[in-house]
Structures are given as structure tokens and as C-alpha cells.
Write a structure and sequence with these properties.
The protein is an alpha+beta fold and 338 residues long. It contains nine helices and ten strands. The strands form three sheets. It has a four-stranded mixed beta sheet. Strands 2-3-7-6 form a four-stranded antiparallel beta sheet, with no helix packed on it.
Length: 338
Amino acid sequence: MLGEERPGDQATMAIDFTFSDEVEDARLLVKRFMGDVARPKMAELSSRRASGDEWRQAIKDLRQTARNQGLWAPHMPEEWGGMGLGVTAVAAMSAEAVKTNMGPYLINCQAPDEGNMHTLLHFGTDEQKDKWLKPLCEGTMRSCFSMTEPEVAGSDPTQIQTAAVRDGDEWVINGLKGFTSGAHGADFASVIAKTDPHAEIAQARNSAFIVPTSTPGFDIVRDISTMGGGGGHPEIRYNDVRVPHANMLGEQGGGHKLGQVRLGPARLAHCMRWLGTIEQALEMLVDRAQKRYAHGSLLSEKQGIQWIMAESALELYSSKLMVLHAAYKIENGMDFRS
């Protein structure tokens, strides 16, 4: 009955919605770096219309400064040069980093490199880790992720048509991929392709491969514009692309599992990046409403504008709680599917 005390009620009601000291310290670290160092430098470069070379050098210097401050690859273990933080801290940091142009890149926590580091760490061989993971962690290499296809439903990877056929000690890959995030300038692609088309279990038909973008047959067909960006997600054709068997990432038939392991924490970081962008937009809206005077009052004093701000704040708050709740469940080994 309502109001009746039940065993465990005291513990059940003790819900703490604040970040732990570790998470809050990490969030503030990235917030201070972006606000005190990165954004002022970028504003200075923009104000004098700095050249492309100046921008590239500035980004390089900012990354080194971040690394010197210990603000580097928060999602990776310390033995790999990272901060060794959990998914909740990484999510909180992502929401702050995205408020600065190229913010996630400055701390080496940008997609798709973040996800590729994660999969190489958990599925890569020692040779693969030395050749591909180490440079990613050091920030000297970039990568892309090639899974989605234009002809089949992206939400159902069991329908992937790109095929990889074994030929001796090599695999020959043919197919068309869309939305290959980060392909421009990437050194390698993590590619999901069908290797076992007749496997009884659909989820065991695909495998993952490391494909150097310099490999003959790796062709960028066209760029695809997306909301918030004019490019960076090209369509890639794999035309008789040959890679050695040693480039298979994980076990044969394990591509579906690898994709799920990769995309779980990556989706949390993506969600928090978008929520960080929304939070920044709301802050700009409130600031504008408190300064703009029209028709006898400030915009912030007009009921219709107040509705917009209040509803946006409610949607942001509920979305943030949902994402952080999922992060909490993952980090504590709980069932996060519901």
C-alpha cells in the first residue's frame, strides 16, 4: 500500500544523482582545459584568420598540452597511455569536450578512433596492438569504421552483403559501405564483412578485418553530408581488397559480437556529445533571452519563450539521466538492456 514501509525502503530511497569525486574531477579537468586553453586559442586564430598551417600546428600543440596535463585517452587503461576511467567518467567528459570545436580530438577521445581502440584492446593480437593500437593511443594515427551499407538496414548487421573470401593466407573483400566515419585521412579501416554466409546462426556470419586505407581497391566513392557536418562519412567501395589473414580482428565469425562490444560504450559517448551540444545551445538561448529586449520586455519575460526554455531543459535533463543511468549499469555489471 502507498505509504507502507517495506524492507529495503531506506536503501532503495538513498539515490545519489551526483557524480563521484573521480568523475567530477575528470569532468572539471576537461572543462577547464577547453575553457581556459583551447577555446581562447581557437578564438585568437579565428580573429586573425590564421592560415591552415597555423591551425594544424595549433591543434597539434593543444593535443600535446592536453597530454602533458594528463588529459588524454580517458577511455584507455593507464598502461596504454590513457586515464583508465570508466564509461560514466568518459561520458561526462565527452559532454564537456564537445562544447569546443574538435574538443574530443584534442584529448584523443574522438569517434571512431575511440571505438577502434576499444576493440583492438579487447580483440587484437599482440602484433595488431603494436602495429595499430599503440599509434592510436599515442595520437599519431587515425582510423575509420566501415560497417553500415546503403543497400541493407543498418540496424540489422546480419544482413551485411560485403563479402570476404579466403584465398590462401589472404582474404579478398568486395562490397560497398556507407557512412564510413573518419575515412578521410585515416590510416586503416575496421571493416565488418561476411565470411560465413551459410552459418546456421546469423550472428556468426560476419568477421572483422583491419584494412589499411592504402590497400589497392580501397576507393572513396563519394562523401555523404550529415546534420551538423558537411562530410567525413564517405561511401567506400572495396574492390578485390586483399588483406592477410593476420589482419582478421578477433575470431572468424565474431564480427557481430565485436560490433556490439564496440558500439555499446561508443553510443554512450555519442549520446553525451550530443547532449553536451544541446546543453550549450540551451545556455546560448537563455543568455540571448536575458539580453534581448523587444516589444516592452526581455525575451526571457515572455511566456512563450519561457515555455521553450523550460521544455528544452526538461528534455535535456531527462535524456541526460537516462544515458548516465545506462552508463552506471554498464559500469556496475548490471543488465543495461532495459
